[in-house]
Amino acid sequence: MSDNQTTHETIAQAFGRTTDPLAEYDEGFQDLDVDPFELWLEEQVHSQDYANGTVTTLQRRIDQWRDYMEDNHDRHPAVPTTRHVLDFAHYYLEERDNSKNTVGAKLGTLSRAFRYFQSEPHFPHPTDFNPFDAAKGKIDLNGDDPQDPVPIPLEELRDAIRGIKHVRDRALIVTQFKLGLRASETSNIKLSEVHIANAELQDHYEDLGTHPALEGRENAVYIPHDRDRNKSERPRVLPLDDELRRALLQYLLCRPDNGRPWLFLSKSGGKKIDNTNINDIWKKHFRPEYGPTERYRGVSSHYGRHYFTTWFRIEREWSRDLIKYLRGDRQSGGKIRSTRDAIDSYIHAWYEDIEDDYRQEIYKLRI
């Protein structure tokens, strides 16, 4: 769509139209004290004789859309552009590994809510534009999804990573492979949450490795569970092996020194990179060679997490509880309180159990 944006704008200008017809209503919706999606749920869902499971599913899809817009765009979710909807769809397809049918169902639910807005006289939504329907026509949501990610043998993976010459890109991809992190978690790492035992780095970056969770734990990274979009149920400290330390050292020695707290910064402007940036980096270096086929999903930013989990579960036969700690999954006992004592107690109970074995058993990329 972005490639055709100029053409769309040219056509709109020729006929006195706009490519963003809902923009003028954004401020009004932002000022409202009521949620239009809750009104749709109340009048069109809760009033019907739907099964409880159906109601829960519809509510969840609405919540996912609202959360996505709040986290990623400065726009009220009731008045999106087609691009907002496409980004949402790609996020759930590529970052969250939803199937095409699942994403199509999400957009179908959101389109139903939008058509309700169009049908009610007190809403300003024009009847000739539905961004959810427009987006569905610009993305392939048909056919069966390949179930498995494309398999890459370890030796082949080593060659692919050695072929990444851009220092930041290599450090970012190695980070996700070595730690099994989501794109959002990688984007959210702060310098203070990375400890590397290197005097030159520590002199240059005063905040490096200063997070309390890293006290007494050198060459490690802290991944919080309660930061926006991190998605994990539990915090964790993970070891940095020698290869990842070298990759990060090379990057940090040439990282833009602009005072921003985030570990990974964009090439232009030195800003925090986001999920889309990270996914684009993966595709740049792994596609088309490892793109999607009829049998396999293509490599995307989620691939490192899949590879990491499979390695420890299948190749090293780690216990389910240890893998849950590595991934930040919920353990028995439910949610953890976001207090210093609760976090310290949880990490202390697990990190010492995994540290030595992790450093010995994590796959070597020979970089």
N/C terminus separation? 37 Å
The major beta sheet can be summarized as: 3 strands, antiparallel
- β-strand amount: under 5%
- What is the domain tally? 2
Count of individual helical segments: 16
Classify the fold: give the CATH topology of the largest domain.
Answer: hpI Integrase, Chain A
Low-confidence stretches: none
Structural class assignment: mainly alpha
In CATH terms, the superfamily of the largest domain is Intergrase catalytic core
Shape: globular
**Topology as H/E string?**
HHHHHHHEHHHEHEEHHEHHH
CATH architecture of the largest domain: Orthogonal Bundle
What's the CATH class of the largest domain, please? Answer: Mainly Alpha
Question: How would you characterize this protein structure?
Answer:
By secondary structure, the protein is mainly alpha-helical. The chain has helices at 5-14, 26-31, 36-45, 52-72, 82-95, 100-119, 131-136, 154-162, 167-179, 183-187, 199-204, 242-252, 275-286, 303-315, 320-327, 340-361; strands at 148-149, 194-195, 220-223, 236-239, 296-297. Strands 2-3-4 form a three-stranded antiparallel beta sheet. A two-stranded parallel ribbon has the order 1-5. α9 runs parallel beside α14 (303-315). The model has no long low-confidence stretch (mean pLDDT 91).
